Amino acid sequence: MALTTRRRALTTLAAALAGAAALPASQARAGTARPGPHPLWNAHAHNDYEHPRPLFDALDHRFNSVEADIFLVGDQLLIGHDSSELDPTRTLESLYLDPLAARVCADHGSVYRGWRRPLQLLVDIKTEGSSTYLELDRHLRRYPHLFTRYAHGRVHPGPVTAVISGDRAARIPMEAQEERRAFYDGRLTDLGTAAPATFISLISDNWTQNFTWSGEGAFPDAERQKLRSITAAAHARGQQVRFWATPDAAGPARDALWTELLAAGVDYLNTDDLAGLENFLDTRPTA
Questions:
Q1: Nearest 5°: CA angle at 166, between 42 and 229?
Q2: DSSP single-letter state for residue 1
Q3: What is the separation of C-alpha 173 from the centre of its chain, rounded to a whole number of angstroms?
Q4: What is the CA radius of gyration of the chain?
Q5: Using CA of residue 170, residue 176, residue 179, residue 184, what is the dihedral sign?
Q6: What was the pLDDT predicted at 35?
């Protein structure tokens, strides 16, 4: 296969992820259902499960990405930030998978009625990655029509795209699969490597370990250029970008940093403040 043909095929597959490349609003709409409120494509609910109504609070604020931390206990995937706070009634199914399946059924095949771009479900593995992922894979397969699926070199978009983060050992069984219902959350060290967007759909990293600026004063030119180089390299390969550990206290510094992130093309703004990010994004032009 010629190099240009191979690049074209990779671009097509990456775009099929839907969460891997931004679509104009007109193209993001599904044609058969009357659209509901415009989703906030750039909004990521960090530690979403800590809100009073996990998932539903984020959806009410129109977020298009939510984060769930999981622990493997027996054959159950329990939700929590620390093993000491686990509750056997708070499972991945009860808080996320079952509600998402019900919502997609009720809203004509989309998480947001009338909008076809998938919701990103970022699953952060807190226990040993390989065994936890294999159990997670069994859970995801119980929802055959819910998730974006990779099968034998092709991506088949679904209403929800699961992206696996956390313990790095999950990568080994994921890369061995010819068919899976999840994609991998890479790091900046994965940027520009041979791993395609059909495997690493998202590049995430710690803001404070890569940048000194926290929103106070001017953004150093060298850091602005570095940030834009990162997003350009990721987007050229059909991957999205997110940083965690960004300042999250309401105020001018946070707004300044969020403004620079959006201007650089960062795909997800990471926050615990659902209303704060909603208000911020609502003052910006929609994509």
A1: 50
A2: -
A3: 20
A4: 18
A5: positive
A6: 72
**What does pTM read for this prediction?**
0.90
The alpha carbon of residue 227 and the mean position of all alpha carbons in its chain are separated, in whole angstroms, by 19
Beta-bridge partners for 44: 65, 270
Q: Distances in Å between the alpha carbon of 136 and those of 15, 39, 182, 184?
A: 25, 27, 10, 13
167 and 70 Cβ atoms separated by less than 8 Å: no
Structure token digits, residue 43? 């909004």
Task: Give the number of domains in the chain.
Answer: 1
Query: What residues does 200 pair with on adjacent strands?
Result: 184
C-alpha to C-alpha distance for 287 and 282, rounded to whole angstroms: 11
| Category of 150 on φ-ψ map: left (φ > 0), alpha (ψ -120 to 50) or beta | beta
Q: Which residue has the tokens 């104009």?
A: 24
**Nearby residues of 129 by Cβ (< 8 Å), 6 or more positions away:** 166, 167, 168, 169, 170, 171, 172
* Residues spanned by the domain of 157: 3-202
Give how far Cα 167 sits from Cα of 70, 109, 127, 171, Å.
11, 31, 7, 9
Residue 277 covered by a domain: no
Residue 159 belongs to a domain = yes
**Does residue 172 belong to any structural domain of this protein?**
yes
Helix, strand, coil percentages in the chain from 3-state DSSP, rounded to 5:
40, 25, 40
72 and 91 Cβ atoms separated by less than 8 Å: no
> pLDDT tens digits for 51-99?
999 999 999 999 999 999 999 999 999 999 999 999 999 999 999 999 9
Residues 6+ away with beta carbon under 8 Å from 130: 169, 170, 172, 173
Residue 276 domain-assigned? Answer: no
Among the listed residues 184, 195, 265, the one whose alpha carbon sits nearest the alpha carbon of residue 229: 265
**Looking at the chain, how many residues does it have?**
287
Residue with tokens 């510094």: 253
Q: Are 96 and 54 in contact (CB under 8 A)?
A: yes
